[in-house]
Structure formats: structure tokens, C-alpha cells
Design goal:
The protein is mainly alpha-helical. Helices cover 78% and strands 0% of the residues. The chain contains five helices and no strands. The chain is flat and about 60 Å long. It binds protoporphyrin IX containing FE.
């Protein structure tokens, strides 16, 4: 019985390693997942000025993840022809920097207690996310 099971266990072990390697997040995916968590949490409270401190905390997290991701390379960079790589990366960094400016505008609006401006900047971040993903993210 044990003799029959041993190869099965070996196969299962190799498979599970293979699957976990396949599912592993890139450093940028990790930052983006953290950004996603903060952005989703912020959605619930961004129009409530009474939750200013909480909102500023989520915005700080978005800022932190954006800063970190800005220094990384998107997976799609590998698909670009060699001659186009540098320009592609510059464009990515510029988009991330633009996103960062709007995160700061969002922070300023929340600090000023301007709920309408905060909501507008919050929605703008969603537009930039869609644009950024269309341009730089696979699938
Ligand atoms: C509210 C803003 C944003 C949110 C909530 C967000 C969320 C996410 C999520 C959930 C993923 C998938 C992570 C995973 O697979 O584990 C992702 C990936 C990605 N996002 Fe964003 N994102 C935002 C803004 C942006 C912007 C502005 C850009 C570019 C200008 C961008 C570029 C990318 C890229 C390139 C990936 C793929 C990661 C890789 O290549 O390794 N994202 N994002």
C-alpha cells in the first residue's frame, strides 16, 4: 500500500509546487492588490466627511502602493520589441506619476472637507485605473 502511495505523493507534491509557482504574484501585483483593498475600502466612506481620518489613512496607503509600483516594471514590458522598451517604460512611469498627482488632489480635497471634489477625484482614479490597465496590463 505504502509503495503504491509514494509515487502518488511525489506527483501531488510536484503538482502543488508547480501550481503555487504559477499563481505567484509579481511585486507589482502585490502592490496593486494592496491598492485595490484600500481603494475599495475608501469607496464606502469617501462621501462621509465624518470619516476624514479613516479616509486619509486609505489615501496614504494608495499613495504608498503607487509610489512603490511606479519604480517597478509591468509584465507587459517583456512583450515589447527591444527598441520600444525604454519609451514604453517611460510612458508607464508618466501614467503612474499622473495617477499620483490625482491621489494628492484627492488627499487635498479630503483635508479641505470638500466632499464633492473628493468624490470627483475618487472617480478620476477609477478612470485612470481603467486606462492604465488597458494600456499596460495583460488580459
Ligand atoms: C484605483 C487604482 C488601481 C487599482 C485599484 C488597481 C488594481 C489592480 C489589481 C487588482 C491588479 C491585479 C493584481 C493581481 O493580479 O494580483 C492590477 C494589476 C496591474 N495594474 Fe493596477 N490598479 C490601479 C491603477 C493602476 C494604474 C494607474 C496603472 C498604470 C498606469 C496600473 C497598472 C497595472 C499593471 C501594469 C498591472 C499588472 C501587474 C504586472 O504587470 O505585474 N494600475 N491592478
Amino acid at each position: 500500500m505504502l509503495k503504491k502511495l509514494t509515487p502518488l505523493v511525489a506527483v501531488a507534491t510536484v503538482l502543488s509546487f508547480g501550481i503555487s509557482a504559477f499563481a505567484e504574484d509579481t511585486p507589482m501585483e502585490k502592490e496593486m492588490s494592496a491598492m485595490n483593498k484600500a481603494y475599495k475600502a475608501l469607496k464606502k466612506s469617501i462621501e462621509d466627511p465624518a470619516q476624514k481620518a479613516e479616509n486619509l489613512k486609505f489615501i496614504a496607503e494608495i499613495k504608498k502602493t503607487n509610489d512603490a509600483a511606479s519604480k517597478m516594471e509591468p509584465k507587459t514590458l517583456a512583450d515589447q520589441p527591444a527598441a520600444a522598451k525604454a519609451a514604453y517604460l517611460e510612458k508607464f512611469k508618466a501614467s503612474m506619476a499622473d495617477f499620483g498627482k490625482h491621489v494628492e488632489a484627492l488627499e487635498a480635497a479630503v483635508n479641505a472637507g470638500n466632499t464633492a471634489a473628493a468624490k470627483a477625484e475618487f472617480d478620476k482614479l477609477n478612470d485612470l485605473k481603467k486606462k492604465g490597465h488597458e494600456e499596460f496590463k495583460k488580459d
